Amino acid sequence: ETCKSSGINAEYGEVPPGWDEWMGLKGNSVYYNYTLNRNGKEEKHGDNYQNDYLPELILQAGIKFMTETKDPWFAYLSFPTAHEPFDAAPEHQNQFKDSTPTKDATYNKTGDDTKHWYTRSREPMTKYGELYNNQGWQRRLSSLQTIDKGFLRILKSVNQANTTIVFTSDNGFLFGQFGMFMDKRQPYEVTIRVPMFVSGPLFPKGTSVGGIVLNIDIAPTVVDVAKQLTEDKTPDEEGGIHGYELAFDGQSLVPGSTQQSRSSFVIEY
């Protein structure tokens, strides 16, 4: 049986090959007043929360696909949250108005001659800069509440016994470290490290991977899961299992698969 697939991601134009359902955003991350490509048709949205709040529309479309599609299926949901302009749902606005970023040893630390030129050349944040930094932190936390609750909605909607779920993010963020605020372009731990959680029938509960895991490992992991759990293992014309014998830069995270430990990796911006 062919795997049904749903893609909800920030792309625009015709429906890319391989997707049965597609909902893509024209332009960069926004929450209101945007145009969607929904299965090849243009769909314009305004500024009404009930009808237009993009994170909620993505959740609704994703859950609908997951609950109405016969197994097996693959769904990819990518949210604008928590990119600027950090628009939170009405019930979560100002929820974190008293919260401030974590102030570790690098907070507002500048002029360190051991760092690269951009960090060395920066002046400390002004009071206005810190205020702007704090407001960004608070608004991001508020906007993320829809994603947190939405993830629980997804978990309750699917059969977790036979569903593999990968949860991660694209990058971290600087909130005052080395005097930089609202930025992600410097290769420090706070920007390059992101959470990644995987659950499913092939992943033992409560375990963790201590080595370096990269986002290039997601695709081979998904393919490996599909290969191991599919009931139809009839070889295709090229000898692979329905084309699953593919070459990847990353490696599968499925326990028992062939994995090589990493000591380094390339970061590009």
Layout: helices, strands, pairs:
Layout: E1 4-9, E2 21-25, E3 34-38, E4 41-45, H1 49-52, H2 54-68, E5 73-77, H3 117-120, H4 127-157, E6 165-168, E7 174-175, E8 181-183, H5 189-192, E9 196-199, H6 218-229
Parallel strand pairs: 1-2, 1-5
Antiparallel strand pairs: 2-3, 3-4, 6-9, 7-8
Work out the helix count: 6
Radius of gyration: 21 Å
Instruction: State the share of residues found in helices, binned by percent.
Output: 25-40%
Termini Cα gap:
39 Å
Mean pLDDT: 87
Strand order of the main beta sheet, please?
Answer: 4-3-2-1-5
Number of separate strands:
9
- Helix- and strand-based class? alpha/beta
Q: What is the oligomeric state here? A: single chain
Work out the strand percent: 5-15%
Shape: globular
Stretches where pLDDT is under 50 for at least 5 consecutive residues are none
Order of helices and strands: EEEEHHEHHEEEHEH
Q: How would you sum up the major sheet? A: 5 strands, mixed
Jot down its keywords.
alpha/beta, five-stranded mixed β-sheet, single chain, two-stranded antiparallel sheet
What does this structure look like?
- The protein is of the alpha/beta class and 269 residues long.
- The protein has six helices and nine strands.
- It has helices spanning 49-52, 54-68, 117-120, 127-157, 189-192, 218-229; strands spanning 4-9, 21-25, 34-38, 41-45, 73-77, 165-168, 174-175, 181-183, 196-199.
- Strands 4-3-2-1-5 form a five-stranded mixed sheet, with helices on one face. It has a two-stranded antiparallel sheet with strand order 6-9. The chain has a two-stranded antiparallel ribbon with strand order 7-8.
